[in-house]
Amino acid sequence: MARIKDRLKNNSPGPFFVDSSCIDCGSCWQIDPKHFAPTGNSSYVHTQPSGGQEIGKALLALIDCPVAAIGAPKELTSKAHIAAFT
Questions:
Q1: Beta bridge partners of 38
Q2: Residue of 48, 50, 39 lying closest to 16 (CA atoms)
Q3: Cα 24 from chain centroid?
Q4: Which of 6, 23, 30, 76 is deepest in the core (most CB within 10 A)?
Q5: What DSSP designation does 19 have?
Q6: Using CA atoms, how far apart are residues 30 and 16, in angstroms rounded to an integer?
Q7: C-alpha–C-alpha distance, residues 17 and 51, integer Å
Q8: Quick check: 10 and 44 in contact, CB under 8 A?
Q9: How far is Cα 58 from Cα 35, in angstroms, rounded to an integer?
């Protein structure tokens, strides 16, 4: 589970973030390049998603992250099982 206290500084301000546990596997930016990008050492949120489809895509990246380095508020993650696959 991503920790807000370990949020990387290069994330854009907003609810979605990548923390320092990221191994830059590429999963998030391959699933959702509109919002995630690599730095060479880790990934980060370069643009916050807005709207249902964009949030759903970001949640899919969150679910797929092998080290759970992507975080978002509980109001969003509690719907991840529904929103990510619609």
A1: 43
A2: 48
A3: 12
A4: 76
A5: B
A6: 16
A7: 17
A8: yes
A9: 7
Q: Which residues of 43-65 are buried (b: 16+ CB within 10 A; e: fewer)?
A: bbbbebbeeeeebbbbbbbbbeb
Asked if 22 and 69 count as a contact pair (C-beta separation under 8 A), the reply is yes
Kindly state the tokens that stand for 9. Answer: 């500084």
Q: Count how many residues are written for the chain.
A: 86
What spatial distance separates the first Cα and last Cα of the chain, rounded to whole Å? 23
Question: Taking the model in full, what pTM does it have?
Answer: 0.91
What tokens were used for 86? 């619609």
